[in-house]
Amino acid sequence: MARWQKNTIHPLKVGDEDWREDPKLLRQHAVDFFTNLLQTDSLTAPYYAVRVNFLKFSDNELRCLSSIVTEEEVHTVVMDMHPLKASGIDGLPAMFFQKKLAGSEEKCSGTVQGVMEGGNLEEWIKKTILVPIPKDIGS
User: Fold this and answer.
1) Which superkingdom does the taxonomy of this entry point to (predicted)?
2) C-alpha distances in angstroms, 46 versus 33, 37, 88?
3) pTM for this structure?
4) Cα three-residue angle 132-138-139, rounded to 5 degrees
């Protein structure tokens, strides 16, 4: 007989009560235990005073963050990725996009610019690993 076939819990002591063997009762006890374990009581939960000094951007950095993403920047970012970078949700490595990029820069930059202007990300994009597009702060 394999070990996993012997790994079972027959009786279990529930609280201060007697030993129990009923699977439904044991299942309910386990659910109750972990539900109570993962809930917080506002009276007993610790209070952490968090003091954070957020960074302040300069005017030049703010201008940089709101600048338009160009096709050249999209091209540079894709070409700078390692060709065998881990594939995204589509299963394709960066090498595929590097070889097939010609003509797609406009669509990519349009998608990025739409998000920068307050548009929503499509669901499939939310599941991918995005590469930041570096901006030239000096321009």
Assistant:
1) Eukaryota
2) 21, 15, 40
3) 0.42
4) 90
